[in-house]
Amino acid sequence: MFHIQIPKQKMIQLSQLKKQPIVEQKINAADQKKPSKVEFQSIFKDKFRTIQLHKTQIEDQNEIPLVEDCLNVVGEEHPESDGRRDEEKKYSAKYSNSSDYWEEHQFRAKPSTFLEEEQSEIPFSEKLPFADKFTGRFLQYVTYIEAIAFEDMPDALDVINEMAALLEKEDMSAPLEEIHEKESELSSIMEDVKSVNSHILTLWAYLDLLEKEEQGLELLKEEKEQFLGLRKYIIDVKTKSESAVKEIEKFPMIDFSVAEKSVETFKKSVSKFKLASTKSPLNISPDITIDEVTEMRSISMHQGANSRWTDTGVWKIGEKHIEDIQRLSEENKIDKIKYNLVTRKEFNDDFFIEYPELDPKNAK
After folding, report:
1. Residue ranges per domain, the chain?
2. 251 Cβ partners below 8 Å, 6+ apart?
3. Residue 134's closest CA among 208, 231, 238?
């Protein structure tokens, strides 16, 4: 008798599948009663999963990535998971044996005796800070805005200038393919450029939450006041960014002298804002990069997860943080990982067996 050994729930005996298909097993178990439409749907979904599990085990030796005896920290691409949160929660509850499921910004550094929806009503003294600390999250968006100001906007102007030079050739000798490549390059850059205002609005929203004592609970009083004092800089950055984006979007009727001046004004505004956001008492270098801020957040998340590793459930965080934690662990730069660390791929490989209709590969 031939067996395929699958860890935990995923053991399949091929001879049983041949002798008595899973549909027949379920019908017989119901004393040969005719299943309802809903029951039939469930039966066939189970049969499909059994076949998929059989296929996956042969090809990939796949295992259920979640465990029941400790915290699972799982990577994700936020837009991907945002579109399937309900299914992820059901899957996570089934295989972690816990209804606790946290998005990246929801996991607290210590377990709270209050439900998340009750947090805004409880006294400040009883509120608990988040594992993904306020400073790191705030600075992440500051670095996004800086990258747009000092890299994306100047790049957009350069590409526009190159396109203009191609289009102005009197003999029209510029290859059409080259012009289209420049158009595609500009379109890609402008997607980032146009996101600047959403980043600025996110910072403003963070300050609102800080003022309401729903974020930044780990901050000292003077640190909190310093952050709240950044509102005037945010308004200035927003005004200057809107002006710069407007000038760039005038292509092909763009006036380069006006556009360049507008971008330079925006860059100066961002410089002042970043310097103001990284002054003492936070003791953060004004030259900090996006990757350095991301790593700072990853370390904070790791520390929070390690402090609550015995709490069962699933905490979803960005895949970049998973990669940071793996690398820092290999380099012995963080404490030993006590929780179950799961990559986005490991999670998705099994999640799509449970929910094949959500797998992009099955999309028509």
Report:
1. 3-60, 71-107+308-362, 134-291
2. 160, 163, 186
3. 208
Per-residue pLDDT tens for 154-192?
999 999 998 888 877 655 656 777 888 888 999 999 999
* Cβ(233)–Cβ(277) below 8 Å: yes
Give the Cα separation of 113 and 118 in Å (integer). 10
- Structural tokens at position 238: 């927003």
The tokens describing 182, both together, are 């420049």
Q: What is the DSSP string of 162-217?
A: HHHHHHT-TT--S-HHHHHHHHHHHHHHHHHHTTHHHHHHHHHHHHHHHHTTSS-T
Q: Which two tokens stand for residue 196?
A: 């600047």
Secondary element (H or E) of residue 90: helix 85-96
- Evaluate if pTM is beyond 0.70: yes
Task: Name residue 96's amino acid.
Answer: S
Q: Binning pLDDT at 50, 70 and 90, where does residue 285 land?
A: confident
What does the pLDDT look like over 74-107, one tens digit per residue?
999 999 999 999 999 999 999 999 999 999 999 9
* Phi, psi angles (nearest 5°) of residue 108: -95, 155
The half-sphere exposure of 273 on its side-chain side, counting CA atoms within 13 A, is 30
